[in-house]
Amino acid sequence: MSLLIVSLDTTALNVALPDIRADLHASVSGLQWVVDAYTLVLAALLMLAGSTADRIGRRRVFRWGLGLFVLGSLLCSLAPGLGWLVAARALQAVGGSMLNPVAMSIITNTFTEPRERARAIGVWGGVVGISMAAGPILGGLLVEVSGWRAIFWVNVPVGLAALLLTTRYVPESRAPRARRPDPVGQLLMVVLLGALTWGIIESPHQGAASPLVLGCAAAAVLSLAGLLVYESRRTEPLIDFRFFRSVPFAGATAVAVCAFAALGGFLFLTSLYLQEVRGMSALHAGLCTLPMAVMTLVFAPLSGRLVGSRGPRLPLLAAGAGMTACGLLFARTASADLPLWVLFVGYVLFGIGFGLVNAPITNTAVSGMPRAQAGVAAALASTSRQVGSSLGVAVIGAVMAAATTGRAGGLGDAAGFQDAQRTAWWILAGCGLSVLALGALTTGRWARGTARRTAHLLGDESPQAPARAADRAGSEAAAG
Q: Where in the cell is it found (predicted)?
């Protein structure tokens, strides 16, 4: 149930963005912050939430997460203005960071028999697919009937029910030896992600050479440098940069950033295009994106089986090809009156590509890693997903803002939007091409050799077996 409300909230929200813009008089950058306030905080706190749960109790942290997510949802539904909505979304994300990774740990510790655990993980993954398919339609229906605030109201009763069930049925568990907290590393990571995203979002309005944007760039560079220096000296760092000596791991994190940047940008762009330019209702727009969600639902399990039988290379190549083809198709044909069958083909291509990419990300990240470090590697891959989603919305939104700000029709100006969306689709095609190239370069024999050397460096001679890695890939695909 926790995964259901988190996933539905994410997919349904994009359909509601035009309604939020009209009701709260939000600019493009304001809409970007409605989305990125959540993904940024989530990315920054995922690893902290996991280590805290291991240390003080997984059920306790999970219940806190549910409580904060419900409270954040309630405040979102009552937000009187854009600033309040963004702040409430950030509070939602604090709660959300305690849900997905902690829930997977709870499943692992509650279902100790392999068959029961596999069944539980299968249900977990199925909920992700269902929420992706149902989210845009449910969101569109709620917006049509009750307005955008209903999307957040729905979370309250479901979250409270999940809280009661957790209290009644979930046993408490802790790790035998939890990782030490790293507050300095955590702060540096927050500054890095926040400054980078802030600079990108505000650059169309402030100017690339403005003091604010240059200050954000400087803060991002300095925090990255500080993170590299500080974390390399810690015994138990928040991010162990030695992991990146493994080419498969480094490639997996880069693929996660590129693929989820494409997804974040895709959802943001298509929602605005279908409603602001083509004049569709929220429900009609949700139905139009259904082919993408259905293809993701169909191809995600196929990707998991391919990873288990043939490794991550083939699904990554196919995923990159699908997303690239979608971007190129729309970059070449973008217009205000594009035939619906062209939209259908493009959305199917993107859905196939994104459906194939999730499982090999985690497989590539953990294959060859020491068994003791596989969970940390998977958590870093999950964090990379959220970072990518934040950057995708920031970059694509900045492109849209730069092209439509100052025009009489704003986002509804067909000529301005058309120029912007061509550029945006070229960027998304570049994300897909990056997935394709990284899939080819980081999954070969030489790359696997670097993973073995990294495993030896990290102090465990017995690397994660590919079959076990594939199992983890399925669970992480659900959690991420």
A: Cell membrane
pTM: 0.86
CATH 1.20.1250.20 fits 242-480, yes or no: yes
Strands annotated E in 177-304: none
Q: Do domains 1-181 and 242-480 have the same CATH topology?
A: yes
Going through 71-138 in order, the beta strands assigned E by DSSP cover: none
Residue type, 467: A
In the chain, where the domains are located:
1-181, 183-233, 242-480
Place of tokens 């939602």: 92
What is the DSSP code (8-state) at residue 463?
B
Dist CA 399 CA 397 (whole Å): 5
- What's the pLDDT tens digit per position in 152-180? 998 999 889 988 988 887 777 776 666 77
Tell the CATH topology of 1-181: Growth Hormone; Chain: A; (1.20.1250)
Q: Which residues pair with 458 in a beta bridge?
A: none
Alpha-helical (H) ranges within 25-113 are 28-56, 58-78, 82-97, 100-110
> Closest Cα to residue 328, out of 430, 416, 192, 256?
430
Q: Give the count of alpha carbons within 13 A of 126, CB side only.
A: 6
3-state SS class at 370: strand
Q: Which residue has the tokens 């989603």?
A: 389
Tokens representing residue 248 in the block: 């498969």
Residue recorded with tokens 């550029």: 423
pLDDT tens digit string along 346-389? 999 999 999 899 888 877 877 666 666 666 777 788 889 889 99
| Number of residues that make up the chain | 480
Cβ–Cβ under 8 Å, residues 180 and 30: no
